[in-house]
Structure formats: structure tokens, C-alpha cells
Amino acid sequence: MNRYEKIINYDFSAGDQYWQETQAYWQDVRQVWAKLAQKNKRFKIKKKVDNQALYHSLFSGADKFKGEHYKANASQAYITEVIAKYVVPLP
Rounded to two decimals, what is the model's pTM? Predict the structure, then answer.
């Protein structure tokens, strides 16, 4: 059984700041996944590419495109390229 307790008196400002700086990027990630899922009803995800897990590549992109460095077209192209390396369409 999982237990959840409300955290009291914790400074969440670092997480709030991260979200403010990267939310547009993560929205792009969700959109790229949605398009991929519409196009490919079945697919599998490789555990690693070049000895790196998908989440690591996506978080690297979040760092690259955060805040004033965010450019929608570049972000979406990066995400599409990264995800394409890990996804294998299934019949």
C-alpha cells in the first residue's frame, strides 16, 4: 500500500522556477508524443540508445531550451529527432 503525506513548510521554489523555465519545452514533448501515438497505434521504446535512456535525452533538451533559450521550432525538431531514435513502430 502506498501512503502519501502532505509536505508542510517545504520550499518548492526551485521546482516552481524549473517549471516556469521549461514548461513550453515539456508541452512540446507531450505534443510530439501525441502525434507519434496517432500515427503509430503500436510501438515499443528502446531502453537505451548510445548507452543513454530516453528520459536523459529529454531532460538534456529541457536544459538546452529553457527560459530565454526556448525556440519552438528548434525545440520540436530536437524532441522529434530524439524520440525517433528510441521508438520502433510495431505492426
Answer: 0.88
